[in-house]
Specification:
about 180 residues; alpha/beta; 2 domains; two-stranded parallel ribbon; 9 strands; elongated
Length: about 180
């Protein structure tokens, strides 16, 4: 630079040098965009609910459109019955014993349901009624109906208001009839 140059001349020369070197990248804006993208992906990835399907189980299919909420799950494989709640999976008996059991309910399953799942007040009930809410039953499609009936009766006796059966949704079926 020349010392006899005016302030305006120095500024013009400095700008010309910057243009020759190329522009600078503003990382703050780029980081803001990536932060928003990460939050968007985190929020939307938690909206997907996938129930674990053990390899020892084949689910029946359905054309229903409604999705299940996150609730306790009773899994009936070909060999055993499990209770899954809050990330814990507890074995509660064998499927053969459930199919051939005496009586309408399964005492071991009922004890596990009452021990692991808390009672909640029923909304809108002025008498103070309590329920354990909803439960899903995920059973292999080869499960005998007698075992499935006993599991559903046990869930009802353990104060579950809504008992749902988990199925795989298929496309192209005729619904409503």
């Amino acid at each position: 630079m020349n010392r006899s140059m005016s302030f305006r001349g120095k500024r013009l020369e400095r700008r010309a040098d910057e243009q020759r070197r190329g522009g600078t990248l503003n990382l703050v804006s780029l980081m803001d965009i990536f932060t928003i993208l990460v939050f968007f992906l985190l929020v939307n990835s938690s909206a997907v609910e996938v129930l674990p399907a053990p390899r020892a189980m084949t689910l029946p299919e359905s054309i229903a459109d409604t999705r299940a909420r996150e609730v306790p799950v009773i899994m009936i494989t070909r060999d055993e019955i499990f209770l899954q709640y809050s990330g814990n999976v507890t074995p509660v008996g064998s499927a053969a014993e459930a199919a051939n059991a005496e009586g309408a309910t399964l005492p071991a399953l009922r004890a596990a349901l009452q021990r692991d799942v808390d009672l909640l007040p029923i909304e809108g009930d002025e008498e103070g009624g309590r329920t354990r809410g909803e439960i899903n039953i995920m059973a292999d499609k080869e499960t005998p109906f007698s075992a499935l009936k006993r599991v559903m009766a046990t869930a009802t006796q353990a104060d579950f208001a809504n008992v749902s059966l988990t199925v795989l949704q298929t496309r192209g079926g005729q619904g409503g009839s």
